[in-house]
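Subject: Protein record for review, amino acid sequence with backbone structure tokens
How to read it: Take the token row as a discrete description of the fold.
Enclosed: The protein record, placed directly beneath this head.
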Amino acid sequence: MVGRAVRRHCESSGDFVIAYDRQSLDVSDPDLVMQTILANKPEAIINCAACTDVDGCELDHERAYAANRDGPENLAKASEAVNATLVTISTDYVFDGKKAGFYTQEDTPNPVSVYGRSKLEGELRAQAAHPSATIVVRSGFIFGKGGTNFLSTVVERARRREKLKAISDSFGTPTYAWDLGVRLRELSQLKHAGIFHVVNAGDGTSYEEFARAALDAGGLAGASLESVEMDSLHRPAPRPRNSRLKCLTTPAIGLPPLPFWKDSLVDFVTLGESWGVKSEAGANG
């Protein structure tokens, strides 16, 4: 989902893009990563590879750490070898969710799941391997075209008249994949090493509130949507109850806030095959 958004935005901006899927480049293979980067010598590498199945990570530690810890480290070492900037995506799940307000870069990570711990290890190892040019981007509640998560599929499922359940007591800051892709490219150009929190503007929301806003945008306000509490689902992996993010750094380097999440949600629901066009026009305007 994010990889497609990044590729499309970068190509539309005139960049020469080489994009890999899991079959063509396994980021957990250090020799293959180094060989590939040395052969192409990119100016910037944007790492969208990850194991994002939170419950799957809890059940398969090895797979989680291979993608989320070893992958960023391997890419950072290869980036250092060709003097390239590395932008690697991390997660709001590096925090434990006990804070009432927004998490900023000043807050100490304390992940509660294998997914969160593996992503934090990826942050630390990538920064250690290439400290001068590694940009860590934490994001969360990501939705967009091609996504398979609840946020991305709620409207499609409602149109199929499925009965939906949405969590009312878990909160985050929604992030449109297209807007995230635009910001990832901007950060790669500015080359400010460090940690950035990238989410759409607004105070954040719950899964339930997001779902109802999405259904409203799609003209499906009457769809069946049951409100449930997070603990009632008994999922294998614990999750932070609040993982809302705010960035302290982007205003200082001249980057404006991303669009309000409800505006980007309307774009996502209504644009269809023209995905990204309105957001890109707004970003470049």
